[in-house]
Amino acid sequence: MLRIASNANKISRVLSTPIFLQSERLIVSNVEEIQHPHSSFLSQNQRKFSAKVSNALGISNGVTSNGQNLGYNSLNHRACYTTESTTEDVAATEEVKEIYDKMYKSITEGRTMPPNVWTWSFIYKCSNLEDIKLLFQMLASVRIFRLSNLRISSNFNDHLCLKVVEACTRVGAIDYGKKTLWKHNAYGLTPLIGSAHRLLRGSAQLLGSVRLQMYAKKQKDVALMEDIMKLLKENHLPLQSGTADLLFSTCYETDNWELLMKYSKKFLKSGMKLRLTTLGTWMEFASKRGDMEYLWKIEKMRSDITDKHNLASAFSCAKGFLLESKPESAAAIIHVLNQVMIISQW
């Protein structure tokens, strides 16, 4: 009798929940990076300025005074065009070079702050890794100029920081994008949880459907995700429900149940309210594994958080009933789902 009552409660809870036709899954990927040197195009005077800027930052050979390795020759304004995300040798675009030169002359010769429109144009015109390298070099030099000449110690505004991350993901410069999450960086960029989300979403778009076909790429997705989570923790950035959405989706796509469970415990422990899309992904994963115990635990959690269903959660419940040899209950859910779809078409 207790078992019958439990099943009845389970069915009533599922069927009494509105079903919304939405199903979103966010995935992430990573980009393999290859380093090889290239030539410079700027003058000896620019190299002298580079030395002054490096001294101002306390940087020597890419290492700060506190021992932090910046991973590149910090403010060397010799433009070394290299490629990290592709195997082809791609130079910086002419338009970006021109903007870089104008901004550089404004700082070194005119001793004036470059117009904001140049900075925005610089960001939007970046189309390869070499453009991104020049962008980060210029951001660092503009930050120094603001600090030393204008006495402005604050970072650039958040909107600009987010657009820099978007530019990085657009061209596949994932490692440069991760630098925007550093709490202490030489570029005047404020670490934002939104930047982490853009980095994860943008990297997914880089490889498209190819990432779903390659096991090695899936492993890099997980590595990138864990790397970003580590950066968030080190730089004291708060986790959000959108972060959980991204993490759960990546774990689902890479078939990594253990990692999903690891992060789910952290999110639940923090008291965060998970989104319906996140719960749907979690339920879909549990039903895919045939783990009925966890499926119904997550379903109970969903019913406590929201009175809504989406396609993933509804189909997962139907699948769960089928796996438990309860076709009538599964059919009832599909019938309700079908009615919702018919209504939505009107």
From TrEMBL:
Q: InterPro entries of this UniProt entry?
A: TPR-like_helical_dom_sf
Task: Kindly give the PANTHER family that the UniProt entry links to this protein.
Answer: ADENYLYL CYCLASE
The identity of this protein, by name, is Pentacotripeptide-repeat region of PRORP domain-containing protein
